[in-house]
UniProtKB/TrEMBL annotation:
Gene: hutI
Co-factor requirement: Zn(2+); Fe(3+)
Pathway stated in the Swiss-Prot or TrEMBL entry: Amino-acid degradation; L-histidine degradation into L-glutamate; N-formimidoyl-L-glutamate from L-histidine: step 3/3
Subcellular localization, as worded in the UniProt entry: Cytoplasm
Biological source species: Streptomyces himalayensis subsp. himalayensis
Gene Ontology molecular function terms on file: imidazolonepropionase activity; iron ion binding; zinc ion binding
Function: Catalyzes the hydrolytic cleavage of the carbon-nitrogen bond in imidazolone-5-propanoate to yield N-formimidoyl-L-glutamate. It is the third step in the universal histidine degradation pathway.
Designated name of the protein: Imidazolonepropionase
Family: Belongs to the metallo-dependent hydrolases superfamily. HutI family.
Binding residue positions for N-formimidoyl-L-glutamate: Y145, N311, G313
Broad class of enzyme this protein falls into: hydrolase
Length: 397
């Protein structure tokens, strides 16, 4: 059999899939819609057919999965990949006992401002390739390391050449040049910077935290973004309890991200809303912080997404499989829940129905695992199990 992959109008069959996660409960067992001995037909960049291998229609090319597992490509709904510079020393010091604070972001801001467009783009594409090899086929990324009108707009322009899921995070921290006048910085973020950035972004985000932006500032910024056609998502309740989650729900944010420190009222608010709780265990791992309690959110009925938060400060991993393993080991998730959250959950956090599932009409974004089951993503932590990736119908890795 030849390597399956499509060009416009052609079809490709992936057959002899030992275990297929569809995330389509009508197609198979449980919330994962699990199908054994399955096949998938791709037409162009979309899924055309899903079902038992024995009943698969013919296609132009075919690939034999040899009994291995296939899952939807990961949807990494939270990353910060437009940056320059290095914070190895900060990590090293932290692992020697110094606590994490929002202030380290300034180091990356200085390096990012000094970088050329070509440097920023090369760095971004390097981490995108790295993520793709590990099964990520959809990713969101943010500005937030420029913090001037020009530097934020160029970060978003560079990101938008690589993904539709681009987030304006001018409100990451108050930059040193505005340290004496945070109100003037909020005015910039909601004024000239918003005007320059909105054409390149779909989302607006705020780091709502002590040392960054308080609840009133965050409301002002997100409301201005909404009025300019951007949809909110929020860095909420990461380092401490605070107003972020309640604000996310109030503003119908697509996602409240981090959710490490939640009151019962915060959990209830998320469970009774469309706002997804996006958990980012790479950040707790890399800052030796308390884990978010996924079990509490799931038991309350909240929708949970799992993402990497890939950034040079608090979570320098592009590996969704690593985050799945952490979530299962330390956050109370079952392997099934963690895989759902890293695929369909990420899609929900981006309000997308065309990714994160394997069903006719969805994008043909698939990860082939060198394992008989998706459970191995948690069972075999740190092992590079992703052995094939199709993105928009094209075999990429
Ligand atoms: O998601 N919380 C704010 N932003 C990032 C950290 C960025 C950095 O330290 O550079 C985060 O953890
Ligand atoms: Fe983040």
């Amino acid at each position: 059999m030849t390597t399956a992959g499509t060009t416009a109008g052609t079809t490709a069959l992936i057959t002899n899939i030992g275990s297929l996660v569809t995330n389509d409960p009508s197609a198979g067992d449980g919330p994962l819609g699990l199908l054994k001995n399955a096949a998938v037909v791709i037409e162009g960049e979309r899924i055309a057919w899903v079902g038992p291998a024995a009943g698969a229609p013919a296609a132009d090319t075919a690939y034999d999965a040899d009994g291995r597992a296939v899952i939807p490509g990961f949807v990494d709904s939270h990353s910060h990949l437009v940056f320059a510079g290095d914070r190895t020393e900060e990590f090293n010091a932290r692992m020697s006992g110094r606590p994490y604070s929002a202030g380290g972001i300034r180091t990356t801001v200085a390096a990012t401002r000094a970088a050329t467009d070509a440097d920023l783009e090369a760095n971004l594409t390097r981490y995108l390739r790295e993520a793709l090899r590990q099964g990520t086929t959809t990713f969101e990324t943010k500005s937030g390391y420029g913090l001037t009108v020009e530097d934020e707009a160029r970060a978003l322009r560079i990101a938008s050449a690589h993904t539709d899921e681009v987030t304006y995070l001018g409100a990451h921290i108050v930059p040193p040049d505005y340290a004496d006048d945070p109100a003037a910085y909020v005015a910039l973020v909601t004024g000239d910077m918003l005007e320059a950035c909105a054409p390149h972004a779909r989302w607006i985000d705020v780091f709502c935290e002590k040392g960054a932006f308080d609840g009133d500032q965050a409301r002002t910024i997100l409301t201005a973004g909404k009025a300019r056609g951007l949809h909110p998502r929020i860095h909420a309740n990461q380092l401490s309890y605070g107003p972020g989650v309640q604000l996310a729900v109030e503003l119908d944010a697509a996602s409240a991200d981090h959710c490490t420190h939640l009151t019962d009222e915060d959990v209830d608010a998320l469970a009774n809303s469309q706002t997804v709780a996006t958990l980012l265990p790479g950040a707790e791992f890399s800052t030796r912080a308390e884990w978010p309690n996924a079990r509490r959110l799931l038991d309350a009925g909240a929708t949970v997404a799992l993402s990497t938060d890939c950034n040079p400060g608090s979570s320098f991993t592009s590996s969704v499989p690593f985050c799945i393993a952490l979530a299962v080991r330390d956050m109370g998730m079952t392997p099934d829940e963690a895989v759902w959250s890293a695929t369909a959950g990420g899609a929900a956090a981006l309000r997308r129905g065309d990714v994160g599932r394997v069903a006719p009409g969805a994008y043909a974004d698939l990860a082939l695992l060198d394992a008989p089951s998706h459970v191995h993503l948690a069972y075999r932590p740190g092992v590079p199990l992703v052995s094939g990736v199709w993105r928009r119908g094209v075999r990429e890795a």
